[in-house]
Amino acid sequence: MPAKPPQEPSEAAAPLPHKLNGTRRVEPAPAAALKPPKQLRLAPFKTAVIEAAPTDAFAPVLLELKNENSLRTIFTDLQRRFPGVLGDKTAELRPVAGPDNETWLALLAVPAVARDEAQAVCTAFGPEGKTLGCRVTRY
Predict the structure, then answer these.
(1) DSSP class of residue 126?
(2) CATH class as words, domain 58-138
(3) Measured distance CA(20)–CA(49) in Å, rounded
């Protein structure tokens, strides 16, 4: 039987084989037939706004001592005796340089408030506030 000649591929096929010196060469599909690459859709960028402490934030420094336990006991006692002043406040201890150039702890009543409100805390203690050395500091 005689060999049938190879059939030409249909025009619908994308690559077109051609004979070139005994090797097969594949022609690329026409540019119109190529689909553009799939565009990635990025999720919207989410940001979180963290409010910084106001620049005009102050806190009363009730007392400075070396002993942390004493400061906590004193704060609890003041909170019990002055609930209208310290009822919604918590104690915060910060290291400070004491009068003997050693590290002491400052007892702050926080959260921080405006300067006038912080001063009102010290004033509410009356003469005891002066004896304790209550003062206002920037928070």
Answers:
(1) T
(2) alpha beta
(3) 66
Length of the chain: 139
pLDDT score for 47: 55
Contact, 135 vs 113, CB < 8 A? no
Cα dihedral 111→114→116→120 (10° resolution): -10
Query: What are the backbone dihedrals phi and psi of residue 93, each rounded to the nearest 5 degrees, phi first?
Result: -105, 135
User: Can you give the pLDDT at residue 57?
Assistant: 96
Per-block mean pLDDT, blocks of 10 residues, the chain (139 long): 55 51 60 62 59 76 96 96 95 95 96 96 96 96
β-pair partners for 91: 109
Work out the burial of residue 123: count CB atoms within 10 Å of its CB; fewer than 13 is exposed, 13-18 middle, 19 or more buried: middle
Helix (H) or strand (E) holding 40: none
Q: Quick check: bond before 17 cis, omega within 30? A: no
CA 74 to chain centre: 34
Specify the pTM: 0.60
β-sheet bridge partners, residue 138? 58
- Delimit the domains of the chain by residue range: 58-138
